[in-house]
Predict the structure.
Amino acid sequence: MPLSEHEQQLLEQMEQALYAEDPKFASQMQGAGARASARRRMAIGVVGVVAGLALVLVGVNTTMWIGAGGFALMVGAVAFALTPPRRKAALGTVQPDGSVRRATPAPKPKAPKSAGSFMHRIEERWDRRRDDGY
């Protein structure tokens, strides 16, 4: 029996809250999709290493540059296979109702033409933080 629209929305809110509170744990709990992605990356890495090794062997018989390119391909393939895929994290704060308010980067304030002394700038920054509620 499929989930109702309200249940799907609640499930999505819980997933977003989990990603916001503990992204490392949430990425470990992804399941088969993450394992399939890791397997695919490993297979591409192995193919890249084999192709790079073939180029190195061809480079031994021809020019050094082909061998150097093969070595670079092998290093890149190993790096690709061993690094986890980038996942856009849903960063934000969890609200009392369980929803996630996404964090938006604050625009950088423009420095006034007469910035003043170092201590004056620090005091202004402190006042802005206190006024914003941080």
Observations:
- Residues 118 and 124 are 10 Å apart (CA to CA).
